[in-house]
Design goal:
12 strands
Length: 252
């Protein structure tokens, strides 16, 4: 799909000419697309075919994009191998031994940061406010992840009796975790919930904060009742030309 045509300097280092930088890494577009030629982005009133999803060619230079690509590659590998690498605990939670919680957490922050600096219409409403400078320093390696105590990352593995959750991903949207400000999106079988708020999570939830743990674990939830899927259903119901397709990505 089209990015902004105007050439500019990297928004992080200010040195390099920008390149096409995907908000959600294009490797996830390939994963969702499978053998189809394109993913399908669902928007109100129409559908649009995208080869690898939403990108912006006005935000990052090659070197800085490559730095974030280290997190992108890890997250793609993690999601792709999850089916064979996870176990379900006696309490009914998923767990993945040996996973790099910090690297996956930085991947999520990188997605949110790219969305926040992009002028793409699909990224409207993603504003990191006072957290933006610190997040940038963390994902580009200048500060440790522990310098952002307001951040809590929760993962929910989604299941469905009718659809294949691994065939979907969405762009980030603002939301709430209980009363805390957060951002959520679907990512090939997971629901990502990223809290950015000074208020703490309830004590019983805190052990599942991925970025503050060495254990990759989370709840197992229902795909069909997730907020993002409910949004997809509403869009599809209002668009007579749109039918459920592999890789449907809701826009704005």
């Amino acid at each position: 799909m089209e990015g902004d045509a105007k050439s500019t300097k990297c928004l992080y280092c200010g040195c390099e000419e920008t390149i096409e930088a995907h908000i959600i890494p294009k490797a996830f577009g390939r994963l969702v697309r499978g053998n189809a030629q394109n993913t399908v982005r669902v928007t109100s009133g129409r559908t649009k075919k995208d080869q690898f999803g939403v990108y912006d060619n006005g935000i990052l230079g090659a070197k800085c994009d490559g730095k974030l690509g280290e997190y992108d590659e890890y997250a793609h590998s993690f999601c792709r191998s999850f089916a064979t690498n996870h176990k379900i605990t006696d309490q009914g939670f998923f767990q993945v031994d040996g996973a790099d919680c910090a690297k996956f957490s930085k991947f999520i922050l990188a997605v949110l940061w790219r969305a926040s600096v992009s002028k793409r219409p699909e990224c409207q409403g993603i504003e990191l406010g006072p957290y933006a400078p610190k997040i940038a320093e963390i994902i580009f390696g200048r500060r440790p992840l522990s310098d952002l105590p307001e951040f809590d990352l929760l993962l929910i593995r989604l299941q469905s009796s009718r659809l294949v959750p691994e065939n979907f991903y969405t762009m980030p949207n603002r939301g709430k975790i209980l009363e805390c400000n957060s951002y959520g999106f679907l990512l090939t079988g997971f629901r990502i919930a990223a809290k950015l708020d000074r208020r703490e999570l309830p004590v019983k939830i805190q052990p599942f904060s991925i970025n503050k743990s060495n254990i990759m674990q989370g709840a197992v939830g229902d795909f069909d009742s997730s907020p993002e899927v409910m949004g997809i259903k509403k869009i599809m119901a209002s668009n007579a030309l749109c039918r459920p397709q592999k890789g449907a990505i809701p826009g704005h």
